[in-house]
Write a structure and sequence with these properties.
Strand content: 15-25%
Structural class: alpha/beta
Number of helices: 13
Number of strands: 8
Largest sheet: 8 strands, mixed
Helix content: 40-55%
Radius of gyration: 21 Å
Number of domains: 1
CATH architecture: 3-Layer(aba) Sandwich
């Protein structure tokens, strides 16, 4: 009799847990959305789509003059550079792109996201847009793509701008909730079907120095592009295939004028990494913004673009 009671209790607990999971999924159900459903809101003019490596790549090109290419970070998009673009396009040709696995560009055809995939993609992008030489700027993972591209194709990058860039091992990172889910087995598979909007909002608030600047429209943008068909699976694979800190020895080999910008309140990649970049890249400059977080260019475009404009005149 005791064994039967134990079985009934165990089955009851299992049924309760299953009911909780089902309820959670019902409340947070967020299926993939096709890219065509997202284009009307997030790809108006001057957005266009170009074919590279079997992908329809989302790009924006504005202004005229010397070319500067802007690369977003993990789970972001070309929209993160809106403020900088407004400040730069009167004097420069500003190119923004949704990198493979993110934004409206979406996943690669073969599911590969090693860093070499991104440097080859950048070379193909340069060829497609007839960019023989450019200033290359990137934030976070986009910063890593920027300096890796400068290393792989040194003749095509005249200057580098690294904004809270990835590059060194970072075991103490205070990872946003959305990134932790993408790195956690089982949970990252659940996230392919379920994504609470609150996860996106908490993740954004984590990367801002002043969380009160995170607006509902900003959450809309990041949420919509997170559920773009294929992006959640791509994020999981990107974390697996392009681990943080791999290839750091190449940073010391860079020979390109470099400006390093960092948010003093960056909880994801701490400011000590900015100092390390400055030490390892000969002749580089470092500017720190004490009140800003991991995406200082998005949080305060006017303050952060000012040293960029000065750097571009040098």
């Amino acid at each position: 009799m005791k064994r039967k009671r134990l079985w009934r209790v165990a089955l009851g607990v299992l049924a309760t847990l299953l009911a909780i999971v089902v309820l959670f999924l019902a409340l947070t159900w967020a299926p993939d959305r096709p890219v065509d459903a997202l284009k009307p809101r997030w790809a108006p003019e001057p957005s266009r789509f170009i074919e590279i490596g079997g992908m329809n790549v989302h790009v924006r090109t504005e202004g005229a003059g010397p070319t500067i290419v802007l690369l977003h970070g993990t789970s972001a998009s070309l929209h993160t550079w809106e403020g900088w673009t407004t400040a730069l396009r009167d004097r420069y040709r500003v190119v923004r792109v949704d990198l493979p696995g993110f934004g409206l560009t979406g996943p690669t055809p073969d599911g590969h996201y090693e860093i070499e995939v991104y440097t080859r993609f950048m070379a193909a992008l340069f060829d497609k847009l007839a960019i023989t030489e450019c200033v290359l700027a990137g934030n976070s993972f986009g910063g890593r793509v920027a300096w890796e591209t400068a290393f792989a194709h040194p003749g095509r990058v005249s200057k580098l701008v690294l904004v809270d860039s990835a590059g060194y091992p970072n075991p103490t990172a205070k990872m946003p909730l959305g990134f932790r889910l993408a790195r956690t087995p089982v949970l990252n598979r659940l996230a392919a079907y379920s994504l609470p909007r609150s996860v996106i909002e908490k993740s954004l608030r984590n990367v801002y120095g002043d969380p009160s600047k995170v607006t509902p429209e900003l959450v809309d943008l990041y949420f919509d592009l997170a559920v773009r068909a294929g992006n959640r699976e791509a994020l999981v694979k990107r974390f697996e295939q392009a681990p943080s800190g791999a290839g750091e020895e190449r940073i010391r080999a860079l020979r390109v004028p470099t400006l390093i910008l960092w948010g003093g309140r960056d909880r994801l990649i701490p400011p000590e990494h900015g100092a390390r970049f400055q030490k390892d890249i000969a002749g580089s400059q470092l500017v720190t913004f004490e009140g800003l977080g991991h995406v200082p260019h998005e949080e305060d475009p006017a303050q952060t673009v000012a040293p960029v404009l000065a750097f571009l005149k040098q």
